[in-house]
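FORM 7B: Structural annotation worksheet

SECTION A. Query
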Amino acid sequence: MGTFYINCKVENHTDRKKSIQIAKLLVDTGSEYTWIPAAKLEKIGVNREKKDVPFIMANGELVTRNLGFAILRVDGRFTIDEVVFAENGDLALLGARTLEGLNLTVDSARKKLVAAGPLPAA
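SECTION B. Predicted structure
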């Protein structure tokens, strides 16, 4: 599968007025979690809810990171999910859990996200 990026709005789940745009979020179905730069999450007041969660990176390295809760918006869809506080050197990733919550799937041939079903009624 080729790689591609999407735009994503990330909101503080307790104060939706606090939000940021992530212009280049790598879509990575191999990552369970969505990884957002820690400085951006801190800027909108996302709290670290789970500390020192272990992750095995693609190169086999074991790292620990903190997790918090955020609302993620992509292409008119939104979900709330746990997000990883990515540190310097980590990639910003849109992971499989968030894709599932957004009800989107990956069209690897066209390098884009496609709806797995209709938008739910608001």
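SECTION C. Observations
The chain has one domain: 5-115. The CA atoms of residues 77 and 121 lie 11 Å apart.

SECTION D. Sign-off
Analyst initials: ____
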